[in-house]
Design brief:
- The complex is a heterodimer of chains A (101) and B (810).
- The radius of gyration of chain A is 12 Å and the shape is globular.
- Chain A is built from no helices and 9 strands.
- Chain A has a single domain, classed as Rieske [2Fe-2S] iron-sulphur domain (Rieske Iron-sulfur Protein).
- Chain A has a 6-stranded antiparallel β-sheet with strand order 1-9-8-4-3-2, with no helix packed on it. Chain A has a 3-stranded antiparallel β-sheet with strand order 5-6-7, with no helix packed on it.
- By secondary structure, chain A is mostly beta strands.
- Chain B is α/β, with parallel strands linked by helices.
- Chain B folds into 6 domains: 169 residues, FAD/NAD(P)-binding domain (3-Layer(bba) Sandwich), CATH 3.50.50.60; 114 residues, FAD/NAD(P)-binding domain (3-Layer(bba) Sandwich); 89 residues, FAD/NAD-linked reductase, C-terminal dimerisation domain (Enolase-like, domain 1, 2-Layer Sandwich), CATH 3.30.390; 57 residues, no CATH class; 72 residues, Alpha-Beta Complex (Sulfite Reductase Hemoprotein, domain 2); 153 residues, Sulfite Reductase Hemoprotein, domain 1 (2-Layer Sandwich).
- Chain B is 31% helix and 22% strand.
- In chain B, strands 5-2-1-9-21 form a 5-stranded parallel β-sheet. In chain B, strands 11-18-12-13-14 form a 5-stranded parallel β-sheet, covered by helices on one side. In chain B, strands 23-24-27-26-25 form a 5-stranded antiparallel β-sheet.
- In chain B, helix 1 runs parallel beside helix 8, helix 19 packs parallel to helix 20 and helix 20 packs across helix 22.
- The two termini of chain B are 54 Å apart.
- The interface between A and B is medium-sized, with 38 and 29 residues.
- Strand 2 of chain A pairs parallel with strand 41 of chain B.
């Protein structure tokens, strides 16, 4: 598995996210209240809303366009909504976030 | 080792408790269920449609046998528990099965009450309670002709309707003159009687049954007045009694039902009880909604979370008998101290009666048109002063000064392909299908599954009607209290009070103090909590950007493609060539794809990339612009006309006043967006009478109009008062806005707020009480001291990194 450096954990707001621009599209890198990091392809399975802009709680993010709630671990929409977005493995080492693209 | 939980009673209340428990603590217990009937858990409410031939038994199963396997729940079906040994903590069934328990849950339900008359034990005399009864009725209808239903209540009428549809000749015997006397007054009963007779049912009103006779099977029913009627089948539907025999035999304290406290615990702390078998604060239960609330509370305690309490409040019934819409709640008969508002249209079979006492609504009966039932019920629960709306309230919420989307008021005759929810394109058929497929019971569940009424909400009344008619009788639509979101059972008002009284000053502190179910809250409550903190502690609370919707976090409006729109403030809608030139230059510099004039007299720059926002703001700021807050739950615009400065009809300087008002109010956070307008004369070119507050200038001063809305439902403003000077107008606006900020629920516009609290209330605090008005205005000015900094300038200077990617990788 090859790891790409994203940046310092401190640069991602707690209960927030930052965007990582890649040649295959934007990736949303989230930081939870408990300082866990998750990464999702930055497109909601519903209408392609930018998940990076949503409200983060627990291990979930609510899409800013129509409030679909996406589970950040699985990338699946929760509740009765159905759909899935791609997830990426991440790790934190010495306060620096890495992603496997 | 896991603890053992035994449930006695495989019905709706008990099984709902298990489902709630499995959601909260799936691994906590080894669960065993005893059920007398040889089936899984089925939807007892749906027995009437089964009898009527509209549904099959399989269609009304909620938990089939597979469910028990999937959830590792042991089911002893067809076994009756005959003994509870509380010392050994064991239950013993009639076939000798013994199960021990750590916690026991009783959900033994109720038994139909059988009239103790001679012949009540003859073959062919039955009740209407379970699948066996329905089978008996269906069998009888094939071989016999004449059916008599004793009891003209809800259940009796449903049984009668079902038997009639199966081809039997049915007579309903009722002891009083009023059908469904628990739910209807005599006028509504007469209308219903007429309609049911028209459908082919026979009635014997005011007939008391004396005996039932027959040789090997029922043949006749005899009445106290000496008359008699032939019968091949008698269905007794005269009421239910809590089934408490087992509990009583085990020495558990019972009165009419098994007595439980607010946690659904019986007098034996290891034993809980829910459903129709319980008695809570002297009340027993027969409708499904309270049972589901009990299930929630009980599950919470079984999971040892220990935070929920069951509180029963006034209940309403909205039910469906044989194609007839009914709604009733509260004291609908009234007395000497009450006044009635009555509407009756016999030809359309519509009857509405509202009972009012001391300007408050205390009872409702609706027959034929029930779309406003929920609204009336809300007015009752809120104790709203209805003196201002009593002229029109009988005609429904749509007639209270508003018009707009949602003209239909009955879903009965609509075809399946009729569009109910215009926002999300959901048809009636989609909704009925989702309700039966997913066993939905509440408006929220229908919303989640179908999206109907999930956007603008104007079709919620219609969706509730469909829910009621699909579920059939016994549907109770109204939760006793509206919780703020799934994280809590507390209402908006309770949360606001707690913030003040317990001096809660951060969101994490609140989540702990008020025992929120999710440690971070959710996307629905966090923005509300942030607002309540901000409005309660304007000087101390540090705003939490992560609890704001994206638009407020980045001070621009997100668009469908993820770009943003930028709306600079144009004070009172007045601009000049220099400003326009600056906007033109900046639009070109950032290649803005669309430049549009807004309805609020400003200019919208659409399609801006997020990275460009801070740069663009810096340029706008250099040109003298500040944020227009077009994205915020805050003051939006003050729309004006040209007034006395130019207009030959203008009476006052409406433009000048508009600018002053905008300078006073900009930057303020409110529960929802807030729009103001100032018109220079009663021709009202600034459309001030559909704003949150509008000023209409007249020759002698300034009229203030409040609570208007031009959106989903057009609502014209109510007249607040008239003042003589600009200074007074400004003070009243500040005071009114502050009152709304303090009292409004998050995401509640002024229109529904005023309908909730009543115009009288607002007038009392803002107009009549001068001291209070000045205090309110003072609080507004004080909170504005910290609020009027331009977020654009601030973000362009300090927070640029929030707008750019953390990194680009190739």
């Amino acid at each position: 598995m090859s790891w790409t450096e994203v940046g310092p954990l401190a640069d991602i707001p707690n209960k927030g996210s930052r965007v990582l621009v890649t040649k295959d599209g934007d990736v949303a890198v989230f930081r939870t209240a408990g300082d866990e990091v998750f990464a999702l392809y930055d497109r909601c399975p519903h209408k392609a809303g930018p998940l990076s802009q949503g409200i983060v709680y627990d291990k979930r993010v609510a899409c800013p366009l129509h409030n679909w709630v996406i589970d950040m671990e699985s990338g699946e929409a929760t509740g009765p909504d159905e759909g899935c977005t791609r997830t990426f493995e991440t790790k934190i080492e010495n306060g620096v976030v890495y992603i496997s693209l | 080792m896991k603890e053992k939980l035994v449930l006695i009673g495989n019905g709706m209340a008990g099984m709902r408790t298990l489902e709630e428990l499995l959601k909260l603590a799936p691994e906590k217990y080894d669960i065993t269920v005893f059920g007398e009937e040889p089936y899984g858990n089925y939807n007892r409410i749906m027995l009437s449609p089964v009898l009527a031939g509209e549904k099959t038994i399989n269609e009304i199963m909620i938990n089939d046998l597979q469910w028990y396997q999937d959830n590792n729940v042991t089911l002893h079906s067809g076994k009756k528990v005959t003994q509870i040994d509380r010392v050994k903590r064991q239950v013993i069934a009639d076939d000798g099965t013994v199960e021990s328990y750590d916690r026991l849950l009783l959900a033994t339900g109720s038994r139909p009450f059988m009239l103790p008359v001679p012949g009540a034990d003859l073959p062919g005399v039955i009740s209407f309670r379970d699948i066996k009864d329905v089978d008996t009725m269906l069998e009888s209808s094939k071989t016999h002709k004449k059916a008599v239903v004793i009891g003209g209540g809800l259940l009796g009428l449903e049984a009668a309707n079902g038997l009639m549809l199966q081809g039997m000749d049915v007579t309903v015997v009722h002891i009083s003159e009023t059908l469904m006397n628990q739910q209807l007054d005599s006028v509504a009963s007469d209308l219903m009687l007429e309609e049911l007779k028209g459908k082919g049912l026979n009635f014997l009103m005011s007939h008391a049954t004396e005996s039932i006779s027959g040789d090997n099977r029922v043949e006749k029913v005899h009445f106290k007045d000496g008359s008699a009627i032939e019968a091949d089948l008698v269905v007794m539907a005269v009421g239910i009694r809590p089934n408490i025999e087992l509990a009583q035999s085990a020495g558990i304290h019972c009165e009419r039902g098994i007595v439980v406290d607010d946690t659904m615990q019986t007098f034996d702390p290891t034993i809980y009880a829910v459903g129709e078998c319980v008695q809570h604060r002297s009340q027993t239960f027969g409708l499904v909604a309270p049972l589901f609330e009990q299930a929630k509370v009980c599950a919470n305690h079984l999971a040892k979370m220990g935070i929920a309490r069951y509180i029963s409040t006034v209940t309403s019934t909205k039910l469906k008998v044989t194609g007839i819409d009914l709604f009733s709640a509260g004291d609908f008969n009234g007395d000497d101290d009450t006044e009635d508002l009555v509407f009756k249209d016999a030809a359309r079979h519509v009857y509405k009666k509202l009972v009012i006492k001391n300007d408050r609504l205390i009872g409702v009966v609706l027959y034929g048109d029930t779309v406003d039932g929920t609204w009336y019920f809300q007015l009752m629960k809120d104790g709203t002063d209805v003196s201002d709306i009593r002229e029109n309230m009988l005609f429904g919420q749509h007639h209270i000064g508003d018009s707009g989307h949602g003209a239909a008021n009955s879903t009965d005759n609509l075809p399946d392909d009729a569009e109910i929810c215009g926002c999300n394109g959901v048809c009636k058929g989609d909704i009925t299908k989702a309700i039966s497929q997913h066993n939905l019971y509440t408006l929220d569940e229908v919303k989640a599954h179908t999206k109907a009424s999930a956007s603008c909400g104007s079709c919620a009344g219609l969706v509730e009607q469909i829910l009621a008619s699909t579920l059939g009788s016994d549907f109770n639509d109204t939760p006793s209290k509206k919780a703020m979101c799934g994280c809590t059972d507390m209402s908006h008002d309770e949360v606001k009070t707690a913030i003040k009284e317990q001096e809660i000053k951060t969101i994490p502190q609140l989540i702990e103090a008020l025992e929120w179910k999710n440690p971070d809250g959710c996307h629905s409550c966090r923005p509300a909590l942030n607002y309540y903190m901000l409005s309660s502690w304007p000087k101390e609370y540090a705003d939490d950007p992560q609890s704001r919707f994206i638009n407020e976090r980045v001070h621009a409006n997100i668009q469908k493609d993820g770009t943003y729109s930028v709306v600079p403030r144009i004070w009172g809608g007045v601009t000049n060539p220099r400003e326009l030139r600056a906007i033109a230059d900046i639009s070109e510099k950032y290649a803005v794809p669309t430049v549009k004039i807004t309805g609020g007299q400003r200019i919208d720059l659409l399609g801006v990339k997020k990275d460009d926002l801070p740069k663009m703001w810096a340029d706008l700021s250099d040109a003298g612009f500040v944020s227009g807050h077009a994205y915020g739950k805050s003051l939006r615009t003050v729309k004006t006309c040209v007034g006395s400065e130019w207009c030959r009809f203008g009476t006052q300087d409406s433009t000048g006043l508009g600018i002053k008002v905008e300078k006073m109010t900009w930057g303020s956070w409110t529960p929802h967006k807030f729009k103001i307008a100032v018109s220079g004369c009663p021709r009202n070119c600034a459309e001030a009478t559909i704003k949150d507050i509008g000023v209409v200038c007249v020759d002698s001063g300034y009229e203030l109009h409040v609570g208007g809305n031009g959106g989903i439902k057009v609502r014209a403003t109510d007249f607040l008062c008239k003042v003589a000077t600009e200074e007074e107008a400004m003070e009243y606006i500040a005071a009114y806005m502050q009152l709304y900020r303090e009292e409004g629920h998050y995401l509640e516009r002024t229109a529904p707020w005023i309908e909730r609290v009543g115009l009288k209330h607002v007038q009392a605090l803002v107009v009549e009480d001068e001291t209070n008005r000045k205090r309110l205005a003072q609080r507004f000015y004080e909170s504005q001291e910290n609020a009027q900094t331009d977020p654009w300038a601030e973000h362009a200077a300090k927070y640029k990194e929030n707008y750019i990617p953390i990194k680009q990788v190739s």
